[in-house]
Amino acid sequence: MMESDDKDVENDESLSRIKAEIATLNAKLNHFDLQRRQALNDLLDLKGNIRVFCRIRPILNNEYGHFGSVVSSDSTHVLLKFTESRRKYYALDRVFTPATSQDEVFSEIEPLIQSSLDGYNACIFAYGQTGTGKTFTMEGTSEWPGIVPRTLEELFKKSQTSHNKFLLEFSMLEIYMGILSDLLGPRNRKTTVRKIQSLSIRTGPDGGIEIDNLRAIRVVSADQPLLPMQIRSQADPTGGSERLLKTQASGRRLEEGKAINLSLSSLGDVISALQSKKPHIPYRNSKLTQVLKDSLGADSKTLMVVHVSPKDEDLCETVCTLGFATRARSIHLAQEESMELRLKKEYAIAELLKIVKKLEDECQEIRSDIENLYENLKYLTNVDSKSFDIPEDPQYDAGDKKPHVKNVKATPVLNQPRFMSSTACSRQKTSSLSPSAIRKKVQDPPVKRKSSSVYADSLSSPVKGISQSGYGSECSMSKTSCSNWIYNEECQSEFSEDSSECDVKMVVFAEQKKLPSTPYLSDKGFNRFKDGRTKKTERKKGLNFNNCPCPRKKEQTAAQIQRTKKGVTNAVPERMNVNKKGHIEMSAPIKLHTFDSFNFNAVDENDLNNDFALNRVDPLSEQEINQISIEMGSLLVDETQSSGNIFLIEDSSGDRTPQSDLGNTELHQSKQYEQTFHDSKHESESHKLDDKSNEAEDSIFKFTVLEEAGGAEILTSNGEVTDYFNGNLCSSPCPMQDVKKICLLPVKCQRDVVTPKGNMILDQKHEAREDSSTDLTNFQMDEHTGICNYFRKTVWMLCASVLLGLGIDNLGFGHEFFNGLML
Ligand SMILES: Nc1ncnc2c1ncn2[C@@H]1O[C@H](COP(=O)(O)OP(=O)(O)OP(=O)(O)O)[C@@H](O)[C@H]1O
């Protein structure tokens, strides 16, 4: 008897000890899990809340034609080869080559799934021309499952191992011609055709989006067939992203195409507004963006996978797709990141990855310890141990020690974007367990980030709906053709980012072609082209400006276009010399051309492969400096007063002729010219060269160079390139081929003054610079007081007034999407 009593006591003690241990471990698990969430979220925040990947489709067996114009140059760049000498790099967050497997694609996406289980909204969508592999990426095949089935599997796996409880539901929504319909909605019994019922979107009491009467199927296993009813859809042969002109769509198809484009341009606007952190996000501009509001919210994680075709004949669509992608990606990056910041960021990401992994491992270890303890309990009591009431362990009360999670508050466990959550009605039909019932069971509710919108309640990113809707899956094409992207007989203009830009640019370029001449290099200095036209081949001789896909270009307003078109004629200096002080002097009368911005392509130290070496301390000989000054003859710089560095590229033969095959750029006017680099390395470089020129200033060159718009390229900066005029980091490094050595040439440009005699004097006084930089046009006009000039001035003012009166919006250029595509 005594013995059995002792055993009971011992058992009781063991039970209490195990329970206490479980409580402690649970608290510890919560604590670590919170830390892991925080770290993962920080990691994803650092990577960017809106990321853009690109996947290049492989050439299919039955495909014929020309290939090779679309290449993945490295893991973050796509290179488009328009012709042998015309090519353009697009920087993205990740580029998947045709050989990339579904596994690899998914491994990049996996952290988002965990994040969604942690309580943050995520949205993954595929974008691209028809037939480029959106469905393959999202759904895949039975042999090669895509993101959706893998996500579901992963969600189940993770939700089962989690100490939280989850309710997973699946909804499917189509947006067609602005009408929302439930793809899981009721069907006609006889015909099995879905009854079209337009659903309405409304904003819930807490600001989230709710769709009335949207059905939700409760998902209990990853293998559960999600679509018990057969869904028939008719493929639209003109669907996808072909341009309307190309598809020659008419009637209903044309309307569909327009609706798609409207949706996607609205999506572009929303992404753009989110990226640039605008106070107003235009969600309401289309049904698509309204529906995606919660998933695209400021704190949500959005991943766009753009798809491109490897075919040469699809180059136009590819350009448009990549233009859209670049715009979505780079707006905030280009404006906010410096090289230093980027390096810090990369370091922080690597560190956070380690922390997340470590915390995940720790959580996993604790979970298995808890499991073991429960097993022990079960053994001791013969009762399913999890039903034991385990007390909270005060030791691990997270309390103040809880890691800080931004904008977080407790939310229900129904981890699903709000717009997809079922209504009371559909829940009644599909699930016996109401969310409120589940909520009661939740031990550690997931976090909500903003009361107004976004939620992380987990799971179903609306990918399926999007990719199937025919909306999200299509690529936006703007209203006109982008045929002038290809340098061909018909269109010998510059490449542009998209069709709307083509329109605008054509105006500009057409006018520029009329420009009297283009500076041209010779040993003696500038010469003119006799025919007054730009010869593209000649640019090779110039220092290269490169057209990086950063959104450097300011919106080119109609007024600016007009001004470029009408106003400032471009005369060319007859002579240009570099004096001993490193100044470039020009003696011929010049008039300066105005442009809207100045783009530089990035040469990122990190992105240069092993063939490249940056040699920043390689001083230039005077002869080389002279050579550069001559090379600069092909730069188009006007009224510039900026400083920076130019990469001089040395090829394997030791020739320091700068590379020419790096793309094109538009050079435009910017109001914020006065920028200097504060990078100490730059400054030290500058001073070295300054010594040479006996200049007290921190730069060696002061130059003004003229050229026609577009085409010139410059490589500049400190292993990355900073926007010359705006001082912004260009986050789009341009990998270069055949470049052995790069050295820096610090440069300072100052806006020059054209004297009435026409001689250019390099202005060194700040006040004077400001005076004349404020309005070059006025300056020129002041030179001439004749009736023609007065008339011209009046026309100018009239144009400007009309444009201002009409508003840019009315002219169609104000649409942010199109503006963005002009980048
Ligand atoms: N990465 C890939 N590897 C192998 N095959 C691919 C890949 N991407 C696409 N394909 C194949 O290319 C074809 C077109 O792909 P898919 O149907 O996914 O294009 P889509 O963009 O969804 O087209 P649509 O817009 O018309 O629906 C399919 O046969 C698909 O299997």
From TrEMBL:
Q: Which Pfam families match?
A: Kinesin (PF00225), Microtub_bd (PF16796)
| Keyword match Coiled coil | yes
Q: Where is this region: Disordered?
A: 420-459
Positions the record marks as coiled coil are: 349-376
Say if the entry is tagged with keyword Coiled coil. Answer: yes
Which segments constitute the Kinesin motor domain? 49-331
Binding of ATP, residues: G128, Q129, T130, G131, T132, G133, K134, T135
Q: What keywords tag this UniProt record?
A: ATP-binding, Coiled coil, Microtubule, Motor protein, Nucleotide-binding
Output the PROSITE patterns linked to this UniProt entry: KINESIN_MOTOR_2
A GO cellular component annotated for this chain's UniProt record is: microtubule
Q: Which domain of life is it from?
A: Eukaryota
Q: Where is the composition biased (Polar residues)?
A: 420-435
An example GO biological process term is: microtubule-based movement
An example Gene Ontology molecular-function term = ATP binding
Q: Which PANTHER family match?
A: KINESIN MOTOR DOMAIN-CONTAINING PROTEIN, KINESIN-LIKE PROTEIN KLP-3
Q: Name the family the entry cites.
A: Belongs to the TRAFAC class myosin-kinesin ATPase superfamily. Kinesin family.
Which protein are we looking at? Answer: Kinesin-5
Q: Which organism is it from?
A: Acorus calamus (Sweet flag)
